[in-house]
Amino acid sequence: MKTNEIRAKSILQKSGIPGADYVINPYTGCTHACVYCYARFMKRFTGHKEPWGTFLDAKINAPELLKKQLEKKKSSFKSKVFLSSVTDPYNPSEKRFALTRKLLEILLEHQVPVSVLTKSDLVTRDLDLYRQFDDCSVGLSMMSTSAETSHQFEPRAPVPEKRIQALKILKESGIYTYAFISPYLPEISDIKKLFKMLDGAVDEIGIEAFNPRGANWHGVKKVLLNSYPNLLSGFRKMVSDDFFWDNLEAQVSHFTAQTGINFMGLFRH
Q1: Contact predicate 104/67, CB 8 Å
Q2: For the chain, which residues make up each domain, given as ranges?
């Protein structure tokens, strides 16, 4: 695993993500090595020849950049900032660099609204900061409740049980929490089990359909071939079937109505 220290030119970027005005990515790359990762397209901008998931660039000047960028904006800057879109802000190297924590401290000084999405229970380390934000939400991403399944598709990410426990800790501390089920894999992800495990741990839930286009399909195909060969032949057809997603969306709407969890929507490709 290769970790580099780099100096970025900018850290606060305009966002095209619904509900977020700006995005911050403290790192380039990610070491969770999820086989379905959509962010692998970033590799062509990095100069890395290593496979995606085996390198991480830490933007060591990110805090000073954020301070400068916020100073140039109005003191009343209240645009929603999202951490992160093409990396995990709580990669294991965050223990060493603490870039996400330093950035949160700066955002907190200005009471900038923040939303965080990660796969790591390390997020609870910064609970003291999250409690002080006037507008803050923290989400954990997962695609299964099974540790075995997670290891197949997300080999170096924390197991789902740790992520759910992190959500419970955050919610019990008064933080607005959400689970992002991404990607939802037909016949592998189990919406009933997910809701059962998440009930009482989250305020909101969102689901993203698996996108079979591009390089992310090859990693998923390899896992299917090795562990779910019976699903391989019809899998791509299934994820392109509107009826399947319509039915899933109806199930989720039913479950959210029963549990009182808000439903942010089903995101399709």
Answers
A1: no
A2: 1-106+113-118, 120-269
Cα separation, 174 vs 166, in Å, equals: 13
Split at pLDDT 50, 70, 90, the class of 78 is confident
Q: How far apart are CA 228 and CA 149, in angstroms?
A: 11
Closest listed residue to residue 65, CA positions, set 120, 24, 110, 21: 24
Burial class (CB in 10 A: 0-12, 13-18, 19+), 81: buried
At position 90, the amino acid (one-letter code) is Y
Q: What is the 3-state secondary structure (H, E, C) of 123-179?
A: HHHHHHHHCCCCCEEEEEEECCCCHHHHHHHCCCCCCHHHHHHHHHHHHHCCCEEEE
Name the residue among 54, 131, 122 with its Cα closest to residue 92.
122
Q: Say if residues 178 and 201 touch (Cβ distance below 8 Å).
A: no
Entry pTM:
0.94
Q: What angle do CA 252, 255, 260 make, to 5 degrees?
A: 115
User: Long-range CB contacts (< 8 A, 24+ apart) of 104-108?
Assistant: 104/129, 104/130, 105/129, 106/63, 106/66, 106/67, 106/70, 107/66, 107/81, 107/133, 108/132, 108/133
Euclidean distance between the first and final Cα of the chain, in Å? 32
Phi, psi of 102 (to 5 degrees): -60, -40
How far is residue 179's CA from residue 191's CA, in Å, rounded to a whole number? 12
* Residue showing tokens 């059962």: 196
CA distances from 127 to 124, 131, 132, 138, 197 (A): 5, 6, 9, 10, 22
What's the DSSP call for residue 36?
A: T
Q: Helix, strand, coil proportions of the chain in percent (round to 5)?
A: 40, 20, 40
- Residues 127-176 have pLDDT tens digits of 999 999 999 999 999 999 999 999 999 999 999 999 999 999 999 999 99
